[in-house]
Amino acid sequence: MAYTLPDLDYDYGALEPYYSGEMLELHHDKHHAAYVKGVNGALEQLQAARDSDDFDTITGLQKKLAFNLSGHVLHTLFWKNLAPDGGGKPEGDLAAAIDEYFGSFDRFRRQLSEATTTVQGSGWGALAWEPLGQRLYVAQVYDHQDNIGQSSGPLLVLDAWEHAYYLQYRNERAKYVEAMWNIVDWNDVAQRFDRARGIDLE
Ligand SMILES: [Fe+2]
């Protein structure tokens, strides 16, 4: 079954003033859609390669698959991580785990903000759960798929690609990242944390 572009749970303008409706529409309808098209295309081309037993372009196709699949996954997560009535701080088990692994919420927030703001080129900042060690950590992801541990599941992601903020924030990525904390849906992140903790790699 082919991947499809998911609908947003809110209107394009619902995250304003922190995230402009024009930017959200473009980001979802054009950029995210391109990754969906890309991953489906890569899967079709790999099928064709198997059918013809011609693997001359295998390295390019595997990269295309990883890049576009990861782009689709991260954008899907990103939209779910945001909500018009978001912001504030996590509560319960997630809050306790953040305190345990980062010292405090403010220290965690500072690290994720810095990691997102300083990505070289295109990438993401992510709060990830690592099931082998059963711990939370912050990852600085390059493109969509590099520089993150294999087993890690992202729980909260912040898009640091220029397409994610340039229309509204121009070159001020730090200002964009700061604004995003006002629309993080901690209920969504907490639910992902609960599900991720059920994964056992051993
Ligand atoms: Fe993006």
Give the strand content.
Answer: 5-15%
The overall pLDDT, averaged over residues, is 97
Secondary-structure content class:
mainly alpha
**Could you give the distance between the termini?**
30 Å
Largest sheet: 3 strands, antiparallel
Name the hetero compounds present: fe (ii) ion
* Helix percent band: 40-55%
Please state how the strands of the largest beta sheet are arranged side by side. Answer: 2-1-3
Coarse shape = globular
Per DSSP, the total helix count is 7
| H-E string | HHHHEEEHHH
Please tally the β strands and state the result.
3
What low-confidence regions span 5 or more consecutive residues with pLDDT below 50? none
Topology, pairings included?
Elements (H helix, E strand, L loop, with lengths): L20 H32 L5 H24 L10 H11 L2 H13 L5 E8 L4 E8 L10 E7 L6 H4 L3 H8 L5 H11 L6
Antiparallel strand pairs: 1-2, 1-3
Helix pairs in contact: 1-2, 4-6
